[in-house]
Amino acid sequence: MPYLDDPLIIFTDLDGSLLDHHDYSWQPAQPWLDKLSAANIPLVLTTSKTPAEVAALQSALHLTHQPFIAENGAMIHLPPGWRTGDEVPFHINGAGYSEIRQTLVELRQRYDFEFRGFGDVTPNQVAVWTGLSEPEAELAMQREASEPLVWFGNDLDFAYLKKCLAREGLALTRGGRFWHVMAAGAGKGQAVQWLSERYQQKRGQPVISIGIGDGPNDLSMLEAVNYAVVIKGHHDHEMPLHRDDISHVFRTSEFGPQGWSQGLSHFIPVF
C-alpha cells in the first residue's frame, strides 16, 4: 500500500474522472488535491483534451510546474524545469493534425464513410456535442496530433475504416464521448511509461504510479501504472484490465470526482 511520503506520481484522466461528466467541476476532489499538493506529489493530467485546454486547467489547478499528457497520449508537454538543452516543450508521438485530417478527408471521399470530426464543424457544433461553452469548444478544436470523430455509419463500414487507418499508420481509440484518431504507436499507456521513466531519472529512485480513469481510452494507462483506479463511467463500455495483481486495481462505486477521491482513499491511507 502506498503512503503520502512515498515517491508517488498520480496520472489522472479528466472528463468523467477528475472532472464531472456533466458540469466539468472538480470541487468534490479538492480535499484530495490539497493533500497531494501539501505532500508534493506530482499530479499529471492525462487526457484527450488539447494542450490549450489542459494549460487552462493546469493553471486553475495550480499544476503549471508539472508535465501533462494531452490528446490521448499523442502529445506530452514538459514544463521549463524539465527540458534539457534545446528540447522543445511538446513531444509529439507520430502524425500531426494536418496529416491526420488529410487522411480522413481522402478516405471519406473515396469510400463515403459517414463521420464528422472537429475539423468538419463549427465551435457551436462542438459545444453541442460536448456541453462546453463556445470559447471552450474553440480550445478543444486547437488540435495538434489527434482528431475526435462522431461515427454515423454502420458497423461494417466502421471496421473497414479501422483497416484503412491502420494502413496509414493511424489507429482509433474510444473515449467517453468520441472516437479519437491518432498515430498507431501513441496512447496514454506509452506516454505514462515515458514520463514515469523521466520522473525516475529526475529523482534518482524508483517511483510508484497510480492511474485514474473511467473510459476505454484509459485502459493502456491503467495497465501501465502500479495501482489502477477504474472510475464508474457514464457509459456501457466494458473496462477489462489484463493484470495479475488484482489487489492493485480498485473499481469505484461513485462517478467522477467523487469516485476519484474514493479511489485515492482506497489506496493511500491518511492519518
Tally of individual domains: 2
Quickly name the level 1 CATH class of the largest domain. Answer: Alpha Beta
Structural class based on helices, strands and sheet pairing: alpha/beta
Which architecture of the largest domain would the CATH scheme give at its second level?
A: 3-Layer(aba) Sandwich
Topology as a string of helices (H) and strands (E) = EHEHEEEHEHHEHEEHEHEEH
How would you sum up the global shape? globular
Mean pLDDT: 93
CATH homologous superfamily name of the largest domain? HAD superfamily/HAD-like
What does the largest sheet look like? 5 strands, parallel
Q: How much beta, percentage-wise? A: 15-25%
Radius of gyration: 18 Å
What is the first-to-last residue Cα distance? 14 Å
Portion in helices? 25-40%
- The order of strands across the largest sheet is 2-1-10-11-12
Count the E strands.
12
Count of DSSP helices? 9
CATH topology tier name of the largest domain? Rossmann fold
Indicate the low-confidence ranges by residue numbers. none
